[in-house]
Amino acid sequence: DAGITQSPRYKITETGRQVTLMCHQTWSHSYMFWYRQDLGHGLRLIYYSAAADITDKGEVPDGYVVSRSKTENFPLTLESATRSQTSVYFCASSERDQVAIAPQHFGDGTRLSIL
Amino acid sequence: AQRVTQPEKLLSVFKGAPVELKCNYSYSGSPELFWYVQYSRQRLQLLLRHISRESIKGFTADLNKGETSFHLKKPFAQEEDSAMYYCALLIYNQGGKLIFGQGTELSVKP
User: Fold this and answer.
1) What are the chain B neighbours of A109 within 8 Å (beta carbons)?
2) Which among B9, B92, B99 has the least Cβ separation from residue A101?
3) Which of A78, B6, B36, B53 is the most exposed place for a label (fewest CB within 10 A)?
């Protein structure tokens, strides 16, 4: 699914720094999502967006901020990074259609380490 | 509350043995369920969706509404099946949000 790209693929930063993870999709899907993947927790939804300028909280939104000024981009910002935010972050997109529910397409992930 | 439970964190089998990865869900609406697979250092990939009733890479999964289960099965495991498997429930009225189980790591030994 080359239609979703995440950047950077790897990031190391320090506690207290602001970090932004980028997600870009080329399908013009309406829905975009951010998940974090941690051992013992699987994937947990951080934020999602149903369209440009429409965002909503998921299961674990604290410490994160998102924006969606354009349909194709959905950046995730850690305003003041903490060690507990060390994780692998996945962006996903999906589009409903009239026939069936479209499953979500995932990016390659960003491995974020906070020291 | 919506919930997906995968009771096994790790499942280890020998090549050629049958495999069953368990998934149970809790949802008051009509469930749409998926299995995703993540091979080592690769992105999540869709393996199965229950509404398609398909078999992918020899895997099948049947939705059992009475038992609220969607177990993934394969009659003869292969070493290349070793991966992390996630069961997911689609909450359709919340933007198509997927709720994932914690995942089961399948290890197929030679």
Assistant:
1) 43
2) B92
3) B53
